[in-house]
Amino acid sequence: MYVIITYDVGVKRVGKVCKKLKEYLTWSQNSVFEGEITKTLLLQCMDEIESIINPEVDSIYLYEVRNPNHIQKTSYGVEKSFDDMFL
Amino acid sequence: MYVIITYDVGVKRVGKVCKKLKEYLTWSQNSVFEGEITKTLLLQCMDEIESIINPEVDSIYLYEVRNPNHIQKTSYGVEKSFDDMFL
Fold it and tell me: Residue B55's pLDDT is what?
């Protein structure tokens, strides 16, 4: 399946959430990761994310599209690179 | 169709992009908007967004899902509210 995950978490947890998502998905932009992933790995990823976040203040949205052909992505402007942002 | 739009734009243009997207879609989180929209309105929205952004430094990603039933959204933690963030 294809997933998009967006996060809005406290400053102290941004690095941990970002690092964890990067183990499973591709960084897309700002606080957005995306990519193809199996249901099993997705459950594992979200379990790990849930153990990092503070559910009273942090927010994670997971969008799942079972068939990647059902979603189309278009970019406007520049394509952001993870390395530009974080290295 | 159902769309998700994420943006990563220069500070000077964040307010304009956010305001424009709010005319067409629902604010979701951080720099993410989403919602159902017709193809005609989406083209109009993206035309207007393109006239605001600086394509050399800004980045907009548009994810389109033709059938809203093909996408499933799950929230973890709190649901963010536009009013909490901006009002």
Answer: 95
- The first and second tokens of residue B63, run together, are 């994810």
Contacts of A68 in chain B (CB under 8 A): none
Verify whether the Cβ–Cβ distance A49 to B80 is below 8 Å.
Answer: no
Query: What percent of chain B lies above the pLDDT cut of 70?
Result: 92
CA dist., res. B16 & res. A70, Å (int): 30
The reported pTM is 0.89
Enter the CATH code of domain B2-69.
3.30.70.240
Q: In chain B, what residues touch A65 (CB-CB under 8 Å)?
A: 65, 70-72
Give ipTM to 2 decimals.
0.88
The domain ranges of chain A are: 2-69
